[in-house]
Structure formats: C-alpha cells, structure tokens
Amino acid sequence: MSAQVNSPAARLASRSYVALVHHPVYDKQHQVVSTSVTNLDIHDIARSCSTYGVAGYYVVHPVAAQRQLVERILGYWNEGPGQSQNDFRREALSYVRVVPSMDEAIDAIQREHGQRPSVIGTSARPTGPAVSAPALRAEFAATARPLLLVMGTGWGLTNEFMSSVDRVLEPIQGTAPYNHLSVRSATAIILDRLFAEEAGT
Length: 201
Ligand SMILES: C[S@@+](CC[C@H](N)C(=O)[O-])C[C@H]1O[C@@H](n2cnc3c(N)ncnc32)[C@H](O)[C@@H]1O
Description:
Elements: H1 8-13, E1 16-21, E2 25-26, E3 32-33, H2 39-51, E4 56-60, H3 64-78, H4 87-93, E5 96-99, H5 102-113, E6 118-121, H6 133-141, E7 147-152, H7 159-164, E8 167-168, H8 183-195
Parallel strand pairs: 1-4, 1-7, 4-5, 6-7, 6-8
Antiparallel strand pairs: 2-3
The chain binds S-adenosylmethionine.
S-adenosylmethionine binds near residues 124, 153, 157, 171 and 181.
C-alpha cells in the first residue's frame, strides 16, 4: 500500500463516484435521447476509476435491456470465461454498478456514507457558473461529503440536467480550438485534476 492512500486527495477520491449517464442526453440534432452503452466506456472508465481509487462507477441507463447488456459484459469478465484471462480488467470492473437512474445512484451513495453526495455536472460547453477542479478539490477535501461526478454520452448532458446539479465543473480547455474529447478521455483528465497527488492540497 503506497503512502498516497492516506493523502487528502486519496481520501477525497475514496468517497467520490463517477456516473456515466445515457439519458437524458442530446443527440446531434439536439433532441433528448437515450444512447446505447458501449463496451469501451465500461472498461476504460472503470480502469480510470481504479487508477485514481474512486469508490465506484455507476453506469446509469433507464432501459432494462441495456442494463442487462452491461451485466452480461461484467458477468463474462467476473464469472465467465474472461475471469482467468485478465486480472487487471476484472479488478477494474469490480468498480462498476449498474442502475436505472441518477436517483438510485444518489440513494445508494447516501446509504453508504450517511449523507447525500454533492452532484457535479460536466460538459464541454459552458453552462453557467462553474467551479475549477482545484477549487472543488480544496472545498471538498475539507468536508466528509461524498462527490458524484456526472459524465455524459451522446452530445452531452441536457441543459435541464445541468441546471439540476449541485455544482458544474469548469470545462476542460485544451490548447487548440478542437473541443470534442471522448467521455473516456474527459473522465481520465478530470480524475487526474481532482485526485492526482501533484494537484495540491
Ligand atoms: C458529449 S460526450 C461525447 C460522447 C462521445 N460519443 C464519445 O465518444 O465519448 C462527452 C462527455 O465527456 C465530458 N466532456 C467532454 N469534453 C469535455 C470538456 N472539454 N470538459 C469537461 N467535460 C467534457 C462530458 O461529460 C461530456 O458529456
């Protein structure tokens, strides 16, 4: 066990969660839709969550058949033929929890920690007053409150959803005009900004 485990950043990570939301999100025409789950999002975000020691990764989908698909993928690696193939993948996938709604994720975290998580929305586009990663980290490192970082799919979380969250994280700003990170890359960058040792606190 490394010394990092007891740092303020590691303690904050250990009560933080990621939610990958498939509804309500926009499609290319700005219609509100449910997107399909993707294998890569399940695996890659689980690996990022494991790497930064977050407490759990919620895959949120309102459609039962899509949730069953995720459970089947998890079953393959946790109990099926995949179990003996790749221990690191299996370890990462143990972080994944499949729920039909954000409310269920929030309730589960509240039961676990005895208090409601602060729900943090993310978006590539500015959606109003936002908090920087260092400010969010400093604020919550000083509390015992859990965090729930919400990532979108499709063309991003709806404006209505974004206006319902407790805080909005400042968009990641690269160094070029291109602004189309995959959700997997955006999650990894955000986890690094919030929980990496060199980020401060
Ligand atoms: C809109 S989805 C794009 C999904 C896409 N189909 C894919 O391949 O991943 C990307 C999600 O990642 C996050 N994201 C992407 N770019 C971001 C940025 N510049 N700042 C903050 N979050 C970002 C947001 O949660 C956003 O909803």
